[in-house]
Amino acid sequence: MTEWIRDVLGDEFQQLTLDLGTDEQGPVVATLVRALPAEPDLWNRIRGRWPLLDGVDVLYVHGWSDYFFQKRLARFWTSRGARFFALDLRKYGRSLRDGQTPGYVADLATYDEDIGAALEAMGRGQGGIESSRRLVLLGHSTGGLVLSLWASRHPGAADAVILNSPWLEFQFAPARAAIAPMVELQARIRPMEAAPQVDLGYYTRAQLEVADPDDPMEVNPLWRPAQTMAVYAGWLHAILSGHKAVAAGLGITAPVCVLLSARFVPPTRWSEELTSADSVLVVDDIARAALRLGASVTVERIDGALHDVFLSRHDAREDAYRRLERWVTGWCAAI
Prior knowledge:
The protein has 335 residues and is of the alpha/beta class. Helix content is 32%, strand content 17%. Strand 4, helix 2 and strand 5 form a beta-alpha-beta unit. Helix 4 packs across helix 7 and helix 5 packs across helix 7. The longest helix has 21 residues, at 314-334. The radius of gyration is 19 Å and the shape is globular. The two termini are 34 Å apart. 43% of the residues are buried.
């Protein structure tokens, strides 16, 4: 394992490269980014006053065609005493290498290797349970699906699961059952056949329209392109298989919080409506699918939020952080 080095985000952020062996496209790595909380001052230690999230580790996983760059999200956690870690999965962002197909896997369970390596680097062991520290899983979009499936396969490993617009169901749920057999056949015959590009870049434009100069974000367009990365048959089959598992019920034992926009607007043409709604997922379908994650699920619907609720217009973004703090505070009080 290599050493922690300064991350591209600068400031307090560091990164660690995780060696995952090789596949048919060459060496494979994941990248773990961390930000650590400040040590409590001597006076508070003497009085036995510790931050709310002292003893908590947070592991964040990004969405499709994405990577970790949200400094404020990390600082939400570190300012409350948690250690924050973000994982750029194999073939995404910091982990993408020349000659690799960006974001491609044929089975979402492949990411168990990435997550296991991250947990080990965090000092938690491969399964995440060799630690007295509590573990919070935090996932956005496809990352929310990946972490939900992982938590289901590793009962007891996570103490809480927080999902930011998780991709739990295919766009327009009734279509999944109809297209799944065709996608499965294509994945067997031509897994690397790319689907036509349907993203017109409106989601990226909406984020730029609502960007807050008081909360700036620097994004690498090579790692987070304006139009999403190419979608291949093998990858789409993996996603649909994940959706099928969610529909059957995952039985996650930890409490789950799902943050969603209040409404969906289809991105068929540009309009100002796209700056105050999710234009990626049909949020009503996601809200229904979320109830199949486990026995304790909270769904928070945020008026005016984008697909990434923490990249929304100022008022919606602040509302998302308030709701997140309320849920986390309640979770801490209950354990």
